[in-house]
Every structure is written in C-alpha cells, then in structure tokens.
C-alpha cells in the first residue's frame, strides 16, 4: 500500500453501496452456498454447477461470481480505488476465486467462456501483493478441502 491515500469520498460511498448489496437476503444465501457448500474437486465439478440450469445453486453461483466480477470491473475501469476495494472487501473475493482458479483454464476452454472471472483474476493478480495473498488463500483452500475429504 502507498503512504498517501488515493481513495476519494466517492470511493468510500461506492464501497458502502457494494456492502449493502452483499447484505441482501438472497445474496447472503448465495454467498453462504459458495463459501460453505461449493467445494469443487475438478473442472467437471465447476462445469456441472454451471450447467445445472435452472437450479438454485446455479443461480447462486452466477449471483456471487457476477457480483465480484462487476465490482472488479469498477476497479479496472477506474471507478473505484483498487487498494480501498481490496482492503474493504475482506477476503471473500479471494476465497471464491481460489476455489475455482485451479480449474479455470479448463473450465474456460470447455465452456467457451474465455473471459470467465477475468475481471476478478486481473484485480487479484495485477499486483505482487495480490498474487501473494491469492497463493496463500489457494493453499488454505487446498488444506480445507483435504480436511473435508477425510470426514
């Protein structure tokens, strides 16, 4: 992080609006599903959820991924300060992306969606700090998934 804050009051307002969207009841259900129940072990697991149309879990996945991709687009297009966004959004975007990232290249290829999660990926990996944090979260996800598999 830089010593001089770059974020403006408008950035803070947008962060608060994004937070309000995360508190919407259906979004809370979607976020809960993605955090607690969705533990893909392969690209096929991700693709199965993507193709379970019109299932509730599919809608929740699209809602969460769409939300974070939209928020990341705001950063990439200069509407929202990156450092403030990453500081204020907690680790959820990292967590969601880390669950899918090991399979993302195959999912993109098989689904024909070359840009899937592209905004999220860019926001998380365009800085060294972001890459380091993402690697840490990916390692934590692997450890968590391994412990769940033993149960």
Identify the notable features of this structure and list them briefly.
151 residues; single chain; 9 helices; mainly alpha
Descriptive overview:
- The structure is a single chain.
- By secondary structure, the chain is an all-alpha fold.
- The chain has one domain.
- It is built from nine helices and no strands.
- α2 packs across α4, α3 crosses α7 and α6 packs across α9.
- It is globular, with a radius of gyration of 16 Å.
Helix content: over 70%
Question: What fraction strand?
Answer: under 5%
In DSSP terms (H or I, runs of 4 or more residues), the helix count works out at 9
Largest β sheet strand count, sense and barrel closure: none
Number of domains: 1
Give the low-pLDDT segments.
Answer: none
Provide mean pLDDT, rounded: 92
What is the succession of H and E elements? HHHHHHHHH
Shape: globular
Number of strands: 0
Structure classification: mainly alpha
Radius of gyration: 16 Å
Distance between the termini: 40 Å
Layout of helices and strands, plus pairs?
Elements: H1 9-22, H2 25-37, H3 43-50, H4 56-76, H5 82-88, H6 92-100, H7 104-111, H8 118-125, H9 128-150
Task: Please provide a brief summary of the model.
The chain has nine helices and no strands.
